[in-house]
Amino acid sequence: MLKSWFWTVIASINFILLMVSLLVSQNYFRKSICFQIRQSHFFSQKPFCVYSSWKPQVFPWFGLDIGGTLVKLVYFEPKDITAEEEEEEVESLKSIRKYLTSNVAYGSTGIRDVHLELKDLTLCGRKGNLHFIRFPTHDMPAFIQMGRDKNFSSLHTVFCATGGGAYKFEEDFLTIGDLQLCKLDELDCLIKGILYIDSVGFNGRSQCYYFENPADSEKCQKLPFDLRNPYPLLLVNIGSGVSILAVYSKDNYKRVTGTSLGGGTFFGLCCLLTGCTTFEEALEMASRGDSTKVDKLVRDIYGGDYERFGLPGWAVASSFGNMMSKEKREAVSKEDLARATLITITNNIGSIARMCALNEDVRSWVPQTSKEGSCQHLEFFANF
After folding, report:
1. Is 186 a catalytic residue?
2. Which helix (H) or strand (E) holds 72?
3. Is residue 283 located within the same domain as residue 378?
4. Which of 77, 186, 335, 379 is flagged as catalytic?
5. 64: CB partners within 8 A, 6+ apart
6. Which CATH number is 231's domain given?
7. Burial of 136 (0-12, 13-18, 19+ CB in 10 A)
8. What is the pLDDT of residues 10-65, one digit of tens each?
9. What domain count does the chain have?
């Protein structure tokens, strides 16, 4: 049986992608030219930004990840501004900094995750704080318009972005916001971002950890994991969908496979089954539910364990299998349905990841998701 160490990152993995976009976009350069080198379909197609003019980039420093469900923005707030810099600072820059750092909500859907803020960070020789902001992708037109209203193009002409939306909204950024997008490959950002966030830590705490005794609620512990020599590893990136990468070094990886059943599937099904309207609401409902009322277990079929093949009675034999019965459908709650949906998605991801690890002869897996409970269940499944 494959022994798997599972790690995750407390901060949303998409926010980690942003940090690398930020690092590349602001790393002492002024001008950029974007082009793409196409490789084999089995490996990533990599857009590159080639930089010239060795001058420190002016503020504000941003990175943007435009995903299928959410847009994630990281903003670096400098805390070491000199008196001379402050005097020369234009009003539009002051307005942007004040707007982003003095609010935790923007309109009806924008949220700044204060608990994820990285304080006293040194980035490109400057000290400051990293702020993380998110909003639904369908509100991207309003975001672009806000950038135009705040005259952002007078400060920057190039905005670094990753994610599929960097391609989808590129024309809108140019025509509405007068901004060019320097597109960075999200899987490149993902790998480099993991190494970066591990190197800087999270306000002094390690961000990579694994669960010991994940099946025992009393003995389960979250322990830090050392990423100094992690290769080879299997990287399971859980967003709206799922991509699974075999990583051999920071510059050498391939996408092994993926699945369309990811976080977007969980949220979408929960909206249909429970009437919830936010991802947080769906997770909260799942935390209170009992999936065994929805799923058909091995013991429901065999009356106990299936000992010949080592299947315990509590293992899921058929996800949502009990919902064939009218009586059982009437007995379940919305919380039970949300929990069963979460278990179904994580079981599927864990099964695919485990098979990939065996095929690639990789003994370390890295599931990347923003929710700790999902990772605990993934580790338990992988060791089953």
Report:
1. yes
2. strand 70-78
3. yes
4. 186
5. 18, 21, 71, 72, 73, 74, 159, 160, 161, 162, 163, 166
6. 3.30.420.40
7. middle
8. 334 445 555 555 555 544 333 333 333 333 333 334 444 444 343 446 777 888 99
9. 3
